Prior knowledge:
Blueprint: E1 2-8, H1 13-29, E2 32-38, E3 50-53, E4 56-57, H2 68-77, H3 82-106
Parallel strand pairs: 1-2
Antiparallel strand pairs: 1-3, 3-4
Amino acid sequence: xxxxxxxxxxxxxxxxxxxxxxxxxxxxxxxxxxxxxxxxxxxxxxxxxxxxxxxxxxxxxxxxxxxxxxxxxxxxxxxxxxxxxxxxxxxxxxxxxxxxxxxxxxx
Length: 107
């Protein structure tokens, strides 16, 4: 299974977050991760920043940022084990907190 991240060049906040999510996915579930850096948005299809799992876009429930819950819900729909997803979600929440802290300190 492949997870694709569509990222802007250079990656900003959400793109960086989604790349970190994908790295954790790869580590925990041994998935292939593909990162596509786009300088201009495509005329059709998904625009960066985006996460695609098996070609299906993960949508943000708040319409802005894909949360750990959003990603785990998509993975559960695809048959990932609930017990493994609980640990994965906790790891994603830590990644999200760390990124917010980094951005706060950078300002």
